[in-house]
Structure formats: C-alpha cells, structure tokens
Amino acid sequence: MNSTRIFFILACLSFNLSGQVTSSTKNNGNLILEDIPPIPDEIVKELNRFQNVRSGSFRGFTNSGSELFISTRFGNVSQLHLVKTPGGARKQITYFDEPIGSVTHQPDGELIAFTMDSGGSENAQIFKLNPNNGSYKLLTDGKSRNGSPTWNKTGNQIAFRSNKRNGASNDVWVMSINDPNSAEMILAAPDGTSWGAIDWSKDSKKVLIQNYVSITDSKVYLVDVETKERQLVLGNPNKKSVNAGLSFDNKNEGIFYITDEFNEFKNLAYKNLTTGEINLITADIKWDVDGFAIAKDGRRAAFTVNENGFSSLYLLDTNTYKYKKVSNIPIGLIGGINFNEKASMLGFSLNTYQNPSDSFTLELRRSPLIYGKLIQWTESEVGGLDISNFISPKLITYKSFDNLEVPAFLYAKESKKPLPVIIYIHGGPESQSRPSFSSTFQLWIDQLGAAVIAPNVRGSNGYGKTYVGLDNGFNRENSVKDIGALLDWIEQQPNLDSSRVVVYGGSYGGYMVLASAVHYSDRLKAAVDIVGISNFVTFLTNTQDYRRDLRRVEYGDERDPKMREFLEQISPNNNVEKIAVPMFVVQGQNDPRVPVTEAEQIVASLRDANKTVWYMNALNEGHGYRKKENRDIYQQAVILFLKEHL
Asked: Is the N or the C terminus of the chain less surrounded, counting Cβ atoms within 10 Å?
C-alpha cells in the first residue's frame, strides 16, 4: 500500500468519525473545501510540473503590422503582452487581478477595446486601452453584462452588446470611443434573446447584427444607426438554419457569412445585397468552416475548417472565390486568425497535443493564394515536462444503442496490463472535444497510469446539423446512452480495464457525469462533476435571465407540463438513490450559467442519502476556475480523489 493511500485512509478516519461535514478554506478564504482530506505534500510536489504550463495566444498585430499582441500568464491570470520579434521578450501591458477577455484593435489607430469581468461573473465591462503607456478607461457602466465591441471603419465608434436596460435583454448600442455618455441603443432586443454587432458599413451608417437563437438557428440583420430600422439579410424566417455573419466585402456590396442552410455542414458563403445572389464558396468541403478573417484591402481572406476535430487553414481570393489549403501547418487547432494592416502576414494561435497555444505568422505574397514561411513567435513553457513522452490522441468511433457512430479521442500508452479509464465528457452540450493540448490529460496518464477517452456524444458540434440536434428535448437521455455504449466498447478492448472507470465532466458534461452515475453506477468507480446541472427545472429557473430562453431551446421548456414532468424525471437530483459511486462536486460561487444552487442541492441530497461526496466551491470564480491558485488546489484534490477510487 503506497504512502498516499495510507495518508488518505488515516485522514478520512479522523475526518469522518463525527459524521459531520468537515470544512476548511484556502487562498485567503476564497476556496472552500468540504469533506476533502488534506492534500499530501507528495501530490503537491508531483503536480507542480504539470501546473506551470503557459500559453502565448495571438491577440492581433500592432498598428505597424510588424509586432504582435499576445495573452499569457506570469502571475495568477492571463494578461496582454507585446512581442516585437519572433522569439522575443514578452512585454506586459496590462496588470489586472482578473483575466483579459476579448481584444479588438482600432482601425488605423493605436487603441484597443477589451472586455473583462470580475470573479467569473461574466458581467464583462468594456475598456479602452492605450498599449503605448498602459493607460485605460472604463467605457460601460461597471455593473451590466457587455460584449462584442466592434469598431467602425474610421475607428471613432464602437457597437456593442449590453443588458443594462433590464438585465434580460441583449440590446445593441453604439458609442463614441471618446465619450461613454454618447452610448445610444440602436436595437432593443426581446427579453431573453441574444443579439450582437458583427461589422459596420464603410460610411458608419449601418451595422450588421447577429441574432443567435440556438446552435441550429441564427439570422443576420442590417440596422440603420439613425432610424433604427432593421432588415433581415441572412436567414429564412420560416426555416431554421445557421447564418453567422462575418464581414462586409471591401466595396460594401455584399456579406461573407457561414451557413448550413443549403447542406449538412457550415459553409463559407457570400451574398450580394443588391441582387440577393448567394455564392456557396466551400460547398465541396464536407466539414464546418469555423473561423474567418478578411484583409483590409478586401483582396484576400483566410478561413479555418474543423475536419473531424483537427483544424485546416485556407487562403481565399475574394474576387474569384478560389481557395487554397495551407500545407505547412503542424497538425492541431488553429484560432484567432487575423491579417496585419498591409496583408503581408496572417497571424493565429496554434495548439497541438504536445504544445499549448502559441502565436504564429504566415508570410503572404502579392497573389492572394500564395504564401511563404510559417514563423513561430512564442514558445510557451510546459513546466519542464518532456513533451516527447506525451501521449497522442487517436480518433476512434464506436456504435451506440441505435447504431449511431459516435466519434471519440483515445489517449492510451502502451502497457502490459489493462489501463484504468477516465471518460472526459465535454460541456455545451453543443461543444466538441478536440485534440488540443491538455496538461490535465497528460497528468492523469502520468500520475494515475490511466487511459483517457473524450467522446463526442450525440448533440456535439462539428459533425453536421443532424448530429447536433439528436439530443434535443425528449431525446436528452439518448446522449447518456452513448456513454453506456462507450462502456460496452471499453469492455471489448484488451488494453483497457472495464472494472476501473471514472466519469469526469463540466457544465453539461457535469450533468452527463451525474446521469451516468444514476444509470451506470455498477460499471463505474467514481465521478467528478464540475459546475454541472443537477436538475433541469431548477437550472432553468435560476440561470441568468439573459440565458433562460436560449437554454429552453436546447433542453426543453419547463413551463410545458409534459416537458417539466420529463425533465424532473431525468434530473439526477431526483434519482440520488441510484447513485452508488463516490462523487466529487466542484463549483464557482458566481457562476451565471449553472448557478451554485445546482451544486448545493446535489451535495445535500447525496449527504442525506449517506453517499460519499467531496465538495469544493470557489467564492471568486464562476463557470470554471480561471485563477491559477484555485486551479492548482482543485487539480491536486482531483488527483487525491482519483488515486483513492480509481
């Protein structure tokens, strides 16, 4: 018996003799731990290397076009930095206690508009920053939820989203960058709906605005800034389809956008606003387009495609609509693509299973489809880990109860003995597990000797509009059955130990963890629920007003008696008697998406039923932990929990 296990048993004996909840705090009282034994020093030491990993994500070019802004963390949270040359020093520009959110750059100017919230509340504020001297100014009211700051072409105004009118409506406003008091609402959104600015016309008289209804339904409107009149320009009012606006063309004659209106996947398209003609640019690519940027001169654009979870980068000639795949990009995930002012470089972040996000540029030639060298600007630290030992993801598929093929990524090292398994279930539910860098996965493989499987159960994004809709409404538990089918698949694998399986997931993935524990406790060893939904009715009642109707589209409307009965029936908190595995519940006090009450009620129910449950709650976090000091202790506690139960 190893020393960690002996320590754990002794700690549990001393903790639980009284039968009462034992509570302790960390990080100046901001992190509350209930019924979690003290973490042994050896675990803290073992995890140190894995917890000192940084990224250097691309955040745009300076106005000169020859230097980069990146975000990286040297303290507790990520901040904005400047890098002047490839491999050069990272000069810190912002020094806040909270992480920087979105970053957008003033056209033909030096200023930056960025967002930042407090304590994970997601009530983001918009700030104006001068990166030359670090001075900044708050532009919004400091209380409401704001986002999507979008510059006009001359750089003297921004359009942005805000719920300051009533807390429930995501209205669209415009503001002079030099006068916050000039803010004027140009679109009053119905309660609970989501609207946001995309782009301005050249003359600053009109704004393209996105209306997001659900993962399968979105439309784009053109709004006159002066008259407030709006015109539907993308999407069919009588038919659901994705229509994600991207940008006006350089002549303001039409719009580039992403749509699945005409086939199964999200295509890049162009619509002429005068004739109404639509050109489906990527009809031959049978995967989703998920990123886009257009150069200032409008002659070329770039886009990314999600191909079975992996990213591909393409260059586009906007005059001919011809495109070309960039061939010299390492296999991984690409994000944040953007051109410099002269369109001589394309910048982006690249993330692989061996490396966290780093900033790269691609040299561009005069012809829109010709490119040169790929240059790496940052090389982020990986805590002294030997990345050659990292286990690469393998794409697999397995059949579910109805013969649906479910894709998943398997991380498993060579072993003479069958490996215990951690099933990692993503949130969303319309998200997607992709083969990105994960120090957590590599930590589990190294410290626990486990295999990791990240399934993309029905309802996941990236596999077409039919697949993403297979879990809606009354089909909710079919996605849970996909986990049951994965357990069947594990039983058939000689290198995996089906008697030692744990489920782990966050947000909707947390619900999936709880539901898996309800249905498959006899096939599991333990479960880790992070900011998960424990009861859909209470979740829909208590989630923030601006989110409620958006979530009803996905989960069902609890105001309908039949749907309410169904949601109550499948909610884990109403089926606690079926849970027979130890549970670790992790929560952020300020979570606006899945309120803290979801965690509190499942923990209370498990305790009332004399089930084993550990509980961690961070008072200065929201929907997940963003502060390093909290993440470190959370990861240490998870390892302690898994070492005992796996």
From this structure: N
User: What values do phi and psi take at 571, rounded to 5?
Assistant: -70, 130
> Which residue in this structure is represented by tokens 């105004």?
157
More confident residue, 553 or 362: 362
468-474 contacts at long range (C-beta below 8 A, 24 or more positions apart): 468/215, 468/216, 468/430, 469/216, 470/404, 471/429, 472/554, 472/556, 473/555, 473/556, 473/563, 474/556, 474/563, 474/566
User: Are 168 and 156 spatial neighbours (Cβ–Cβ below 8 Å)?
Assistant: no
- CATH of region 142-284, choose from 3.40.50.80, 1.10.10.10, 3.20.20.140, 2.120.10.30: 2.120.10.30
> How far apart, in whole angstroms, are the C-alpha atoms of residue 459 and residue 553?
13
Q: Is 180 exposed, middle or buried (0-12, 13-18, 19+ CB in 10 A)?
A: middle
The CATH T-level fold of domain 3-38+393-645 is Rossmann fold (3.40.50)
Tokens standing for residue 627: 């502060």
Smallest Cα–Cα separation from 407: which of 266, 307, 496? 307
Q: How confident is the model at residue 544 (pLDDT cuts 50, 70, 90)?
A: confident
List b or e across 573-582, with b for residues whose CB sees 16 or more CB atoms inside 10 angstroms.
bbbbeebebb
Spacing of C-alpha 551 from chain mean position: 16
* Consecutive H or E run containing 145: none
Q: Which pair of structure tokens corresponds to residue 404? A: 């649906």
**AA identity, residue 573:** N
SS3 167: coil
Q: Which residues contact 262 (CB under 8 A, 6 or more apart)?
A: 280, 283
Our CA angle for 290, 208, 181, nearest 5°, is 120
Cis status, amide bond into 429, omega within 30 of 0: yes
d(CA 546, CA 219): 18
Report, in angstroms and rounded to the nearest whole number, the Rg of the chain calculated over CA atoms: 25
* Fold agreement (3-38+393-645, 142-284): no
DSSP secondary structure code for residue 572 in this structure: G
Give the Cα separation of 262 and 280 in Å (integer).
Answer: 9
Kindly report whether the global pTM for this prediction surpasses the value 0.70. yes
Taking each helix axis from N to C end, the angle separating 476-491 and 561-570, rounded to the nearest 10 degrees, works out to 30
- Arithmetic mean of pLDDT, 159-184: 95
Spatial strand order in the sheet of 288-294:
288-294, 300-307, 310-317, 323-325
CA distance 557 to 551: 9
Please choose, from the candidates 71, 68, 49, 52, the residue with its C-alpha nearest in 3D space to the C-alpha of residue 60: 68
Residue 279 is given by DSSP the state E
Residue 560: left (phi > 0), alpha (psi -120 to 50), or beta?
Answer: beta
Q: What are phi and psi of 149, to 5 degrees?
A: -65, 125
| DSSP letters spanning 208-222 | EEEEEEETTEEEEEE
Which of 286, 280, 283, 329 lies closest to 307, judged by CA? 286
pLDDT digits (tens, 9 = 90+) for 547-604: 888 788 888 889 999 999 999 999 999 999 999 999 999 999 999 899 999 999 999 9
Collapse the DSSP code of 120 into the 3-class scheme (helix H, G, I; strand E, B; otherwise coil) and give the result. Answer: coil
List the domain boundaries for the chain.
3-38+393-645, 142-284
Q: Cα(first)–Cα(last) distance of the chain, in Å?
A: 14
Q: To which residue do tokens 């997940």 refer?
A: 624
DSSP 297-332: TSSEEEEEEEETTEEEEEEEETTT--EEE--SPPSS
The letter for the amino acid at 194 is S
